[in-house]
Amino acid sequence: MIDEILLYRFGAEVKLYKKDVLVYEEGAVPYYYYQIQSGSVKLNNYKEDGKEFIQNIFSKGQSFGESLLFLDYTYPTNAIALEETKVLLLSKFKFLELLDNHPQVLRALNKSMAERLYFKCTMLLNLSNLDPNVRMLNLLDYFKSLQKDQKKYSFKVPYTRQQIADFTGLCVETVIRASKKLAKNKIIKIQKRKIYY
User: Fold this and answer.
1) In a 3-state reduction of DSSP, which class is residue 53?
2) What is the pLDDT of residues 84-103, one digit of tens each?
3) Percent of the chain with pLDDT strictly greater than 70
4) pTM, rounded to two decimals
5) Tens digit of each residue's pLDDT (9 = 90 or more) over 156-177
6) Torsion over CA of 107, 111, 114 and 118, rounded to 10 degrees?
7) What angle do CA 146, 24, 17 make, to 5 degrees?
8) Domains and CATH numbers, the chain
9) CA pair distance 158, 169, nearest whole angstrom
10) What's the rounded Cα separation, in Å, for the pair 41 and 22?
11) Which backbone phi and psi does 74 adopt, to 5 degrees?
């Protein structure tokens, strides 16, 4: 999102996170702007019963957790590396200084945060639907809308059945059954265990 050269100019450093390592945890105080250089990170919470709920997944070039740098709140989620991941870290103070000096970066950041808010509203509405097929399709509709090619089966879903379950609040068995039903009705296509929508 923010040009890496600009981040380095303001003092950013690279940190390597191994798979399944916490970048930050729920309840921690935000001190850094995080931007992924390689790999991927999920934001999640765990329910009382231990079931995971994925809030979002970010990959190369994307930032996460930055909205909390404008507030005096702690993180409402965990951030966990899904694979070996390199992250650029910039201190909160330097990040705010960068935005003060580069209003075009602030505008781009506002757009990104507005898109995420839209995603949250869409997913919140989705959770109120009892039909697992509708929940799954709403999630796929949103992610497919982010790509240019809207042809049938043009979107290769980059998430596992478990991750889809964690996004939608369903159990993985329900996602598997819904996937088979949607494939039977030719709404999605399953090829080599991958979903195409």
Assistant:
1) strand
2) 999 999 999 999 999 999 99
3) 100
4) 0.79
5) 999 999 999 988 989 999 999 9
6) 170
7) 80
8) 4-102 (2.60.120.10), 129-196 (1.10.10.10)
9) 18
10) 9
11) -85, 165
pLDDT digit string, tens, across residues 102-150: 999 999 999 999 999 998 888 888 778 889 999 999 999 989 988 888 9
Angle at 43 between CA 176 and CA 73, to 5 degrees: 145
3-state helix, strand, coil in the chain (%, to 5): 40, 25, 35
The closest alpha carbon to 164, from 131, 124, 137, 130, belongs to: 137
Structure tokens at 39: 């790999």
Q: Classify the C-alpha dihedral 74-75-81-85 as positive or negative.
A: negative
The 3-state DSSP class for residue 17 equals strand
Tokens 């997944």 correspond to 57
